[in-house]
Amino acid sequence: MRGMDMTPFVLHNPQRRAFRYDLIGVSNHFGGLGGGHYTAFAKNCRNKRWYNFDDSSVSAQAETNLVSKSAYVLFYQLQDGSNSSEYFVAAPETIADTPPSSTSDSDGNF
User: Fold this and answer.
1) Domain for residue 30, yes or no?
2) Residues near 29 by Cβ (< 8 Å), separated by ≥ 6?
3) Rounded Cα distance, 98 and 77, in Å
4) Structural domain for 80, as ranges
5) Cystine design at 76: which of 12, 21, 59, 61 (Cβ 3.0–4.6 Å)?
6) Residue 14 located in a structural domain
7) What is the pLDDT of residues 20-75, one digit of tens each?
8) Exposed/middle/buried for 19, CB within 10 Å: 0-12, 13-18, 19+?
């Protein structure tokens, strides 16, 4: 859950930086293809504790309980916290001339 090393998979790494990631969230799905129920585990960035979000209920969660067969989407964060966006920039030809429409206001809130 901590220190997932993705360095061997970075194609362009001239500074030979380490790319290690920590798990910060898990989306869970219970049910089948026709429907089901979603919950989430998320790590609080201030107190470093894990929480279980289930509809209107939020409760503390032990890190040892995060791994399950219900995990659907995993969310990771780069360990060192530096701005490494230069490694993840899309090629100019893949960027549309006009931004996609969204339902956000001028402050970026949805």
Assistant:
1) yes
2) 36, 37, 38, 70, 72
3) 29
4) 4-94
5) 21
6) yes
7) 999 999 999 999 888 899 999 999 999 999 999 999 999 999 998 888 899 989 99
8) middle
